[in-house]
Design a protein that fits this description.
The protein is α/β, with parallel strands linked by helices. It has five helices and six strands, in the order E-H-E-H-E-H-E-H-E-H-E. The chain has a six-stranded parallel beta sheet with strand order 2-1-3-4-5-6, with helices on both faces. The chain is globular.
Amino acid sequence: MNTIKIILVDYHSIVRDGLKNILMNLPEIEVVGEAASEIEFYKLLKIIKPDIVLMDIMSPTMTGITITERLSIEYPAIKVIILTSEIDKETKLKALKSGALAYIPKDIDYDKLIESIKIVNEVNKNIEISIFENL
C-alpha cells in the first residue's frame, strides 16, 4: 500500500500540530512537511513532492487561492485540499476554480477529513471531477 504524502500549510502552528498529530497515526498517510507561509512551502516543494497539500485559504502574504493557482500550473500532479474557517460560497467557488479538489470547513469531523483525503487522493486530475462538499 502506498502512503498518501501530505504537506500541511497553515500559518497557525497549533493547527498544523493538531493536524499532524491526527494524521501521523494513520498508516496510509504520511505528513512529509509543514509550512507556516508560502515562502516556506515553496522551499519544501524544491525537495519534497507531496500527493496532497492540505492548506488554509488565509496566509499573511498570499491567499491559498493564489497558491493553488500557481500549483495547478507549476505542479499539476499535486492535489490541493483547502481546509479553512472561511465558509462563504464566493470564496469556496474561487478556491475550487483555482484548482482545489476539495473545500472543507475546519469544523469537519475527524472521520470525514480522513475520508476526504482518501477520496481526493484517488481523483485523477486529468478527468472532469465532481466538486466535493462536506463529504
